[in-house]
Every structure is written in C-alpha cells, then in structure tokens.
Write a structure and sequence with these properties.
about 325 residues, mainly alpha, Rhopdopsin 7-helix transmembrane proteins, two-stranded antiparallel ribbon, 15 helices, transducer, transmembrane
C-alpha cells in the first residue's frame, strides 16, 4: 500500500471520528427539545381529540428514544465510555432497541397517513375507523409486533469482536439485517407513505363533503405530508448505502475502500436521524395552528415561572415610617 493511500485512510477515519464527536450532540439537543415540545403540543385539548395526534405523540416518543440509543453510544465510544462494547448482551440490546425504535417511529407516520386516508373517505363505515380509540389500539399492536418479530435475529447475529466492535457475525446476518430494514423501515414504508398520501389527495378532491373529510384537519394533513416528504428525503441515503452494502458484501475490498464505505455508512446513518430530530421545527414552519399551540405552551410555562418567583415583601407604610424615625434617632 502506498504512503498516499495510508494517509487517505487515516484522514477518512479521522473524519468519521469527528462526525461521531460533533453531529450526535447537535441532533440530541435539537431532538430532545423538539420531541418534548411535540408531545406537549399534541396532548393539548385542541389536538389530542384527533386520532392522528395519537400517532404523532407515539412517533415523537420513539424518535426521542431512537436518538439516544442510536447516537449517544458512538459518541461515548470516542472516550472509551461506551458500555455496549464491554458486554455481548448490551451490544445486542442496543441494536435491537435501535432498530425497533426507528422502525416504530416510521410506522407511526405511516399509520398517520392511513388514518388521514381513512378519514377522507366518502364512505361512512370507512371513516368510522378514524377514531382515538382505534388509534390507541393500533399503536399498542404495532409496538407488540415490532418488539416481538422483526429484529429478534439481532440476538443471534451481533457479537463483540476482539477489537471491541459490536457488529454482525457474518455476511448472511448482514444481508438478512439489510433486507429486514428495507422491508420494515427505510424502503417499503416510505413507498407506502407516498402512495397513501396521493390516494388521500385524490379522496379530498373527489369528496363533496370536505367538512367531514381531510379539510376538517387541514393543518394536521399539511404537517403529515411535509413530514412524509422529509422522512422519504432523508431515508434515501441510508437505503442506497444498505443496497450497496448488500450488493458488495461478498466482494474483497481494499483498506481504502473499507474506509470509504465506513465514512459513507456513517454519513448516511446521521442523515437518517435528521428526520427524527427536526420534526418539531418542520411542524413549526409549516403550520400556523402548531405555532399557536407552541406559543401558548411557552406562555403558560413563563407564567408558571413568574408565579413561582419569590416576590420582595413590601412593608406597610406606617411600619416604614417607624423604621425611619428610629434611624434618625441613632
């Protein structure tokens, strides 16, 4: 290997480490604030009666956990503080929870799309499926399915290497993992979101009773469509990277190619977390009603702080006069 190739590899590895050092912190701060505010907004009386809000709340909760599970351990690894590289069990649990939470956050956006499609239907019996009671049950069923079925292979396919790296045991496990992620998260769900969103728009245009359809919640529909666009946009890089990884997994690669692949994988993963950390800011830009609810929350928070602030005690005027006379005497 030439000296220039070695220096290039060192530089690429350095860039990968620096991305892990700074990007996760930005996403964690933005995502923590944003997802907490999302939950507060969609639990307010003006929005919580809408079944779509149930999916937004559930999605924000999963976004919150996926950010910490997926981003904080690579950051800690830079300082040799990552507990998941100390025990096999923690290594597997980390990937199991990471894949499950990011998948559920995607599923809940997909379910919100289905809910908007159902609510915009011209048929009464189909619209009846759009209810808070149904939404809560579907969220529970989705959680049970996701935590029980798709990613249990992680407990057999991931292991700590001698270099203390938590990774898949062989190429077959890598291929299986990529296929499951495509079907459950980065491939099929975004395609279904786009199709269902287009069908919802068709329903709205064809419906003669928009007051009972999508226009009833036009702000939520706008939020949903923008969220779908953002999710699809930032899912493309990780989908392309997984496709490339699966196509070349049985190809012998040079150290330089491996370093390039590692950097590309890191970039695609961090891009995919943009949609998990920026939903609040996307909603704030696109929806006037959402901004109004956020303003009311912040105003209530400010008022509660003012009420709890210790105010200076004002002495009665007669008492002040007595103190003044005593002062003059001395």
């Amino acid at each position: 290997m030439s000296a220039s190739s070695q220096s290039t590899i060192l530089y690429l590895n350095f860039v990968t480490r620096e991305l892990n050092r700074y990007i996760p912190l930005v996403f964690l701060v933005l995502g923590t604030i944003g997802n907490i505010l999302n939950i507060l907004v969609f639990t307010r009386p003006a929005l919580r009666a809408n079944p779509c809000s149930i999916y937004f709340i559930s999605g924000s909760i999963m976004n919150f956990f996926s950010l910490y599970i997926g981003l904080i351990t690579p950051f800690l690894a830079l300082y040799n503080l990552d507990p998941t590289v100390m025990f096999d069990s923690l290594c597997r649990i980390r990937y199991y929870l990471r894949f499950s939470t990011i998948t559920l956050s995607t599923w809940f956006i997909l379910l919100a799309c289905v809910d908007r499609y159902v609510s915009s239907s011209a048929h009464v019996h189909i619209r009846s499926w759009s209810s808070v009671r149904v939404a809560k049950r579907i969220v529970l069923i989705a959680c049970i399915i996701c935590f029980s079925l798709p990613y249990t292979q992680v407990f057999f396919c991931y292991v700590l290497t001698q270099k203390k790296v938590c990774t898949y045991t062989n190429s077959t496990c890598n291929l299986l993992n990529n296929i499951i992620l495509f079907v459950c998260n980065s491939g099929l769900p975004p395609i279904l979101m786009v199709i269902i969103s287009l069908l919802t728009i068709r329903n709205v245009k064809q419906s003669a009773r928009l007051a009972h359809g999508a226009r009833r919640d036009v702000q939520l529909v706008r939020i949903l469509f923008i969220q779908v666009s953002v999710l699809v946009l930032f899912a493309i890089p990780v989908f392309a990277q997984k496709l490339y990884s699966s196509a070349t997994m049985f190809t012998a690669k040079s150290p330089l190619t491996t370093a390039i692949d590692s950097l590309a994988n890191q970039i695609s993963i961090e891009i995919s977390y943009i949609s998990n950390s920026t939903t609040f800011y996307v909603y704030s830009i696109t929806s006037k009603k959402y901004r109004k609810e956020v303003s009311q929350i912040l105003l209530s928070f400010y008022r509660s702080i003012r009420r709890n602030t210790v105010q200076p005690v004002e002495l009665p005027k007669t008492h002040l006069n007595e103190l003044t006379l005593k002062t003059h005497r001395y």
